[in-house]
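Notes from the pairing session

We agreed to fold both candidates in a single pass and log them together. This is the raw record for the first candidate, unedited. Please don't reformat it; downstream parsing expects exactly this layout.

Candidate A
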Amino acid sequence: MEPGNLEKPFKVTIVGDAGVGKSSYIKKQFSPDFNRDYLQTAGYEVFRWSRNMSAGRVNLELWDVSGSQSKLRDRQSWLRSSDAAIIMVDIAQPITFENALRWYEELLLANPSGLPVVVCTWKPTSKDKMLDVDPETLLWLGETEDVQFYDVASDISRFDQPLLCIVRKLMNDPDASFWFPYTLTDDDLEIHD
C-alpha cells in the first residue's frame, strides 16, 4: 500500500553559531559521504527534503540560517513561520552551548506560539577535543517541554535522529519511521543572500 502524501512542506530552521556544522549536517542528510569542505553560509539556504515514512510521505524545507553576525531583523524574517527548528552546537566549543539559549529565544521571538526544537551536537572532532557532553549543561532544557537533545557528534551513525524526532512531532506520530534512502537533486537547492 502506498503511504499518503503530506503535500504542505514543513519549514525546519537550522540555527547555531558560525562554524558549528549546520550546512554539513544538512548535506549529510542527502549524501552518505562526509564533506569537510567549509563555505560559510551567507544569509540562508533552503534545501527541499522529502522522505517516505511509515505514516506517509513528509516534505520539509530545511532552512540553513547563517550563524554570523547578521542583523537580528534579517534573522527574524528568516526564522518566522518555522514549524520546527534544530539548534546546532559544537562539542569542542563550550560557548556554542551557552549561545544555544540565545538561539532558542530568537526562535521564540519569531514564532511566539512555540515550536518543537532539537538541540544537536554534530561536528565530528578528534576525541581529545571533545567535551564531556552532559545535557544538564543546557539547564534551560529542563524548563521547556518542546526541546530534545541529541549528541550525534559522539555517535555519527545516529545522524538521522534529530530530524526523525522533529518529523514525528510534526506528523504527530511518535512511532513514525523512515522507509528508504533519499537523494538531493539540483532542483532541491535555493541560495539567498
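Candidate B (folded immediately after A)
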Amino acid sequence: MHYQNNISFFAFLAVVLMMIVFPSHAQKQPLIIEEQGSFMVGGEIVKASGTFDPINHGYFNPSNQASEGQTLHGDHAYVFYQIPQDKRKLPLIFWHGYGQSAKTWETTPDGREGFQNIFLRKQFPVYLIDQPRRGKAGRSTEPTTITAKPDDQLWFGIFRLGIDNEFFKGSQFPQDSLALNHFYRQITPDTGPLDIEVNINAVTALFDKIGAGILVTHSHSGGQGWLTALQNDNIKGIVSYEPGSNFVFPENEIPDPISYVGGKLSARGVPMSDFKKLTQIPIIIYYGDYIPTEPVKYPGQEQWRAALAMAKTWSNAVNKHGGDVTLIYLPDIGIKGNSHFPMSDLNNEKIAELMFNWLQEKGLD
C-alpha cells in the first residue's frame, strides 16, 4: 500500500512539473479549423519554339533532354491557408522576408506557436505566402546559380541576434543551441533571379483571388508590400515588421539616399496619383531593438539604422498627404530585446497583441 502511494505521489508530481514547464501548452484550447488548403497563384508560362517529340525528347538521358515545343509553368506564389470556425471578416496575408519562406510565421525555432496559430486563435483566416522562386514556389522561368558557402554568422548579424556567435545582452531571441540550429535551417535560397515585379504580380493575383484582406509583411517584403498596395485595392491595411527597402515617395519628394557601412539606401519615386493610394489605408510599422542612432562599425546593425531613418521620413511623407501611418520603435514603448524576427522572439505573443489591438482600433478585426 505504501509502495502504491509513492507511485501515486510521483505521478502527481510529474503532472505538476509538466504544467510548470509547459504552462502555455496546458492552457491552450484546441484549434477548430473550418477549411484549409493550398494553391499556386500568378506566374507565367514559357513555351519553347519547335515541335515536341514525345519519343526522342531525352527522358532517359537528362544530359540530352530537348525543350523544343515544351512549356514551363513558373514564377507563381505558393499559398497555404487556414480558415477557423467563427472567422473574422478580413483575413491576414503573411509575406516573408529575404532568405525566408512561410516558415517565418509558423512554429518558432524553439517550438512555440508562431503568428500563424496565434492569429488563428483570434479567429482570423490566415494565408501564408512563399513568394515566387522561393520555398514551395521554386519553379522559376529564369536560371540562377545557387552557391553553398558558410554564412550563418552573416545572417546572425543582419538579423540582429548579435555579433559573431554572441547574442546581444537581453536578446528576446531563443538562445538555446537547438533553437538556433532550427533557425539557421529555415533560411532558403532563391531558385531564380530576385525580381520584385514578379513577386508583386503574384501577390496582386492572390488578392484578386481572395478579395479584401490585411497584408502583413516582414523585412524585404515591406517595400514590395507598398508597391503591391499601389496595384490592388483589396489591401485594406498593412502591418509591416522592419521594412528594409523600396520606400515609395512622390516623384518630386524623393529624399536623399542614406549611407551606411556597407551600402546606401535609396527611395523610389512614383506619380502622386499612385502615392496617394497609400494614404487611403491604415499602416503600422514595427522595429525591434539594437538599432543604433549613429553610425557604428557593424554592417548588420547599420543597414537597420538607415531603414529606420528612412521609415520615419516615409511615414511623415504619407501622413503629410493625409495618410494614417504609425511607426513604433519597440524600445520606445518599453519593449526591449527584440531581434529582426519579433514574430519568433520569446515575447512574440506580446508583439502579436500589439498588432491585434491596432487591428481592432482601425476596425480591421
